[in-house]
Specification:
heterodimer; A: alpha+beta; Chloramphenicol Acetyltransferase; seven-stranded mixed β-sheet; elongated; B: 83 residues; mainly alpha; globular
């Protein structure tokens, strides 16, 4: 299960578009996955032949779980197309093939990250009520549980089976008297405790309201992480948009309705070109290091009518013509709103642009999407009184803001970046 | 095109642009953008939709007519009768 956005914990495979034996190529859409925010078409990263679909349709699994096995990865494409390889003869990379995995019903499911965190905080995930979608245990659940017992009473010694059973039966292992070696809790102990224990809380039925709630939670968790971890600094500048507006008006005059451009296209292109010039704004901060990205994939914050926001990427924006960019933006907004995005759009924006100007606010100081290091905000295009060459004039202006990560850059470079956006917008014909 | 036809066309087009937006919520003089939460792409989609239905080449300078429902109806009625 790929990470389709930094705020994603788990996803549900709603549909497989391939079956065992199918040949796949890098970029092919192989499955449809549903997250809190959207329906996402998952593209495959490798060439090969689908060997086995591990996760059945309808199952919800955490980020990092194996969805399917693909053979021939890295090798030349197999010569026989769409033929299932004979079991005995195929030089199958046996190490990659795990024992058959039972369908992961019912949750809680735990990702390696969650497990790791749980170990650190001495939290027993088996006894934890999952608050994640579908009742799965999320990082937040573990964190919360860890905070409740800061000193962390180590979890009682218990067998894996006992822990699993305890989770299923809603039994708190701390309340169980263990009869195993060294007081370890055994399966029978849990069953005994369960007979007197309260029934587990009903798992809520997933619906639109739940989805909204879990989306709000996912956004909240990510933004809280951003504010906790990223030392933001903020800059703001007012850009004279006379040249950009005039150029746009002229360009649209010559265009049929169907190929007209909108101002955000110019803003996106200018941002991407500036990001290529000031690389400290473009990339990822991970493992205590900032890794600038060569490519500029601009995440576009799109508000969803049902509430929430999603920021899928348009790839290589600095290299796209304005017309291509317009088509991409149009397509992306449409698909984000109707809820179908691609995995490659979700997992690799290198910088994000939010444009709340359409809704009338003058400026927006956003929260950076980790692991990115910068977020650019554009406000509404308004007529403002400006002093220019000793004269007072009324000119269309907009405010551009930058939220950037101090671990990757300083205000000086941030200022250079915003100034570069301004400069580029003064010569729209060159965009 | 009559007032009613124009109203219906706008309603249908807006429904495509913003399926969950409810025109009933929009007062006659309220701006469509604000009332229905339309961004610049949505608004362009509205114009394109109306263009495709009517054949009208709605120039950008006429966009302000489309900020209210009543303004848009009046524009469509008058522009289609001039066609």
């Amino acid at each position: 299960m790929p990470s389709l956005g930094a705020d994603m914990e788990a996803g549900t495979v709603t549909r497989w578009l391939v079956k065992p034996g199918d040949e796949v190529h890098r970029g092919d859409i192989v499955a449809v996955v549903e997250t809190e925010k959207s329906t996402i078409e998952v593209e495959i990263f490798e060439n090969g032949v689908i060997e086995e679909l591990v996760v059945p349709e309808g199952a919800r699994v955490p980020v990092g779980a194996v969805l399917a096995h693909v053979s021939g990865v890295g090798a030349a494409p197999p010569t026989t197309r769409r033929v299932r390889r004979p079991e005995a003869k195929a030089p199958r990379p046996t190490a990659r093939r795990p024992p058959s995995v039972p369908p992961p019903s019912p949750p809680p499911v735990r990702s390696p990250i969650v497990r790791h965190l749980a170990e650190q905080l001495h939290v027993d995930t088996a006894s934890l009520p999952g608050r994640g979608p579908g009742g799965s245990v999320t990082r937040e659940d573990v964190r919360r549980a860890g905070e409740k017992h800061p000193a962390g009473p180590p979890r009682p010694r218990s067998s894996p089976l006992a822990r699993k059973l305890a989770a299923e039966l809603g039994v708190d292992l701390h309340q169980v008297d263990g009869t195993g070696p060294g007081g370890a809790v055994r399966e029978e102990d849990v069953r005994r405790a369960a007979s007197g224990a309260a029934p587990p809380a009903a798992v809520p039925v997933a619906g639109a309201a739940d989805r909204r709630l879990s989306m709000r939670r996912a956004i909240g968790a990510l933004m809280a992480r951003s504010k906790r971890e990223i030392p933001h600094y903020y800059l703001s500048t007012t850009i004279d948009a006379t040249a950009a507006s005039a150029w746009l008006e002229q360009a649209n005059l010559e265009r049929p309705v169907t190929s007209r451009l909108v101002l955000p296209v110019l803003l996106l292109k200018a941002t991407a070109l500036a990001a290529a010039k000031v690389p400290e704004m473009n990339g990822f901060y991970e493992n205590d290091t900032f890794a600038p990205s060569e490519a500029v994939h601009v995440g576009v914050a799109i508000s969803l009518r049902t509430g929430g926001v999603i920021a899928p990427a348009i790839h290589h924006v600095n290299a796209l013509s304005l017309d291509k960019l317009m088509t991409s933006l149009h397509d992306l907004v449409g698909r984000a709103r109707s809820g179908v995005l691609r995995s490659s759009e979700m997992n690799d924006p290198t910088i994000t642009v939010t444009n709340l100007g359409d809704l009338g606010v003058e400026s927006v100081f956003g929260v950076i999407y980790p692991p990115q290091v910068a977020l650019v905000g554009f406000g509404r295009l308004t007529e403002r009184v400006v002093a220019r060459d000793g004269m007072i004039e009324v000119r269309p202006c907009l405010t551009a803001t930058l939220s950037a990560d101090h671990r990757a850059s300083d205000g000086h470079r941030g200022g250079r970046f915003l100034t570069e956006i301004d400069r580029l917008l003064q010569e729209p014909a060159k965009l | 095109m009559t007032d009613d036809e124009a109203r219906q066309l706008i309603r249908a087009t807006l429904h495509q642009v913003a399926p969950d937006a409810d025109l009933e919520d929009v007062g006659p003089d309220e701006t469509l953008q604000e009332a229905l939460d339309l961004d610049s792409i949505d608004f362009l989609n509205l114009i394109v939709g109306l263009h495709e239905a009517t054949g009208l080449e709605i120039p950008e300078r006429d966009y302000p007519h489309f900020s209210t429902l009543e303004g848009a109806i009046a524009y469509l009625v008058s522009a289609t009768s001039a066609q």
